[in-house]
Structure formats: C-alpha cells, structure tokens
Amino acid sequence: MPVFHSSRRRFVVRAAVALLAIGPWLTPAWAADASTAPPAIRQALQAAWQQHPSYRATEAQLAAARARLTAAGQPLYNPELELSSDDEGTERTNSAGLNLTLDLSGKRRVRRDAASARIDQVTAEARVRRRDFARQWFAGWADLQTAQQRVRTGERRLALVTRFAELAEKQFTADDISGLERDLALLARDEAEAEQAQLLADQADAEARFRTVGGTSEWIAGTALPTDLLPAPETAVDGVESLPDWQAAQAAATVAEREVTVARRNRIADPTVGAYGGRKEYDVGGLTDNVVGVTLTIPLFVRNSYRAEVVAAQSDADVAQADLQRVQLELEADRRRTIDSYAAAFAAWKRWKNSRGTDVDRRANLLEKLWREGELSTADYLLQLKQTLDTQLAGAELEARLWRHYADYLAATGQLERWAGLEGTP
C-alpha cells in the first residue's frame, strides 16, 4: 500500500486510527463442543448428500448389488418341456417329457457367496464415496468461510483508505499537504479497490466450488466453527482395518477369491435328467401302446475344459490381494501424514491466537499511543496499519487451512462420518 511520507498533518493519522477502532472486529460465535459438527452444519451436510447425484448413484449401485444377490440365490436351471411326434410308416408316436439339469456341484451356493461378498464391497465403496463427499463439502465450506472473512476485511481496508483519500483531498485543497501526498492517498485507494475486486472474485470461485458439492450458504448462514475448541490430534488410533477404503479392498479380494471357486465349479459338468411318456398307435388293427422312458445327458468338456477361466480368476485374485496390501500401505502413510499436518496446523493456530501481535484492537491502540508520543512516524504508522490488515487476512487463511487438515485427519482416522452426522446413512 502506498504511504504518506509527511509528518506535518498528524490529525489525518489520528482520524485513521479512529476509523480503525470503529466497532469490534468480527469474531465468530463458537459452538460449545467440537467433538461433533454444529447441528446446522450436520443438517446442511446431510441434506446436501441426499440431494446430490452421488447419493442417487450410490443407492442405485446398492440396489443393483442386492438384486444380483437375489438372482444368484435362484436355481440355475429351469425345467424344459419337450413335446415330440414321430410318424414312421404304420406307426405314430406322440410323447411329452420334462428335462431338468441338476446342480450337483453346488454352483448356486458359490455364486450366492460371491454375490454376498460383492454386496460387502459395494457397501464399503458407498462409505468411501459418502466420506469423500463430506470431506469435499466441508473443505468447500471452510474455503467459502475464509473468502467471506477476507472480503469483510477487505471492505474495512477499502473504507479506511477511502477515508484517507477524502481527507487528503480536503487537506490538499486547503494547501496543508502537497500534491504528492494527495496522489499517494489516491493510489492507496485505487490499490485497495483492485485488491477488493480480487477478493470478491475469490469469493465467487469459493461459492462455485461449494455449490458443486450441493452446498448453499443460506443453509448455514450465521453458523461458525468452534475453532478454539478443536481437540489436539491423537496418535494412538485404531488400525486402518476400520477404514472404508481398506474394507472395500478387503471385500474386493474376497470377491475375487470366491470367483475362483465359481470358475472351478463351472468346470464340473452338470447332468440333465428327463422323463417322458406317450402313446404309440398302429395303423394295422387299431392297436396302441403306452411309451414311458427316462433320459440322462452329461456334457463332455472335451473341446473346452474351461481351465483358462480358472487361471484368469486366480490371477484376478492375486491382483486383488496385491491391491489390498497397497491400499494398507497407502492408508498407513496417509494417516501419519494427516496427523502430522493437523498437529502442525493446530500448533500454528494456537500460536497465532496467543500472539499479542494478532490482537487487532490492541495493535491499533498501541500504534496510536506510539504516534502520540512521537515514537512512530507517519510512514511507519501507515505501514504497520497495512501489516495489521494483512495479519487479519492471514488469520482467516490459517483458520481455513486448520479445518481442512482437521477434516483430513478425521477421514484418515475413521471419525469423519460420525463427526458430520452421516454415520449409518446410505
């Protein structure tokens, strides 16, 4: 920000200090507990999830998996009705029969087991999508909160420098300041207007990102996060086996193993038995005879033994096991990263809150006192005024970063769904 270099007009600076002290700086009304999200946040997040296309896609996938389980539990083969008529010379034979292929190798059971394991996989994957949605929604809202705070700070900055410019115009007209000092005040106002336009653009971007995950700022207007009540990160947490990512990979490995069993059972031929009855008529003498018989048909897997399908299924199972090990390694590393990142952001926020330099009102009063006592020049005063405003902007960004790390920490430790009120929802 451009600064005045004249110390001749102290009352201008005194007016700026008065403007800076007008009204308390906006501070959020923190909730009483940070173990769960504020009720307004939980309700808004649940509504956003249930109205988002990802929710409908998840519900459809779960319905499809349940339908496949029902289908896998049905008998593999339906009976076949066979009607035949044979006219050979003086004999005519009409018969009817039923044929049924028997599942003697238990194909139906192993297919049902595979479909059941696939439901577990789809359910775990649904939890992953729901958790990721909650993390994206919350990160988007935290970014929007930051953008709104920065816009409010920018508005105060613009009001201050605009007032400076107006005072400078009056003093220049009265020949109390030089044209250079007047121009510097106008440049400061122009710079503040340009920076405010950028802050408004950043807020529009944050609103757009928030709306892509079904968020609307109207749902949670006036709701703030209990930043000061955030708990310190815990290092002793449950294993990654409780995370939906690991459970989805484990279920996929189970499905692959059961598909191997299905492929092996498919190599066993199922016999078809039949029974028929009918009547044979003779043209000579009008005689008739009853015809009764049974049939047994067994496929011969000679040209195709279906061994390649078993090899392919086993290879898929090996891939799934390797993926499970990879997911476990990644989850353990990601958990360590999120705990460390949240711990660092948590410590930085505590230092920022406890620092006397971040108390804007106290700094404004101290600056005025130093200026009155002649220990601070006008140029230095205005420079520190800018630093004070920048500190307010940096604090908003630090708070948003803290909440993003906290959301990642909750997700990596399996607590995000409970915190957000999505535990047990589809």
UniProtKB/TrEMBL annotation:
Residues 1-31 form the signal peptide. Keywords: Coiled coil, Signal. This is TolC family protein. The lineage of its organism: Bacteria, Pseudomonadati, Pseudomonadota, Gammaproteobacteria, Lysobacterales. Residues 177-209 form a coiled coil.
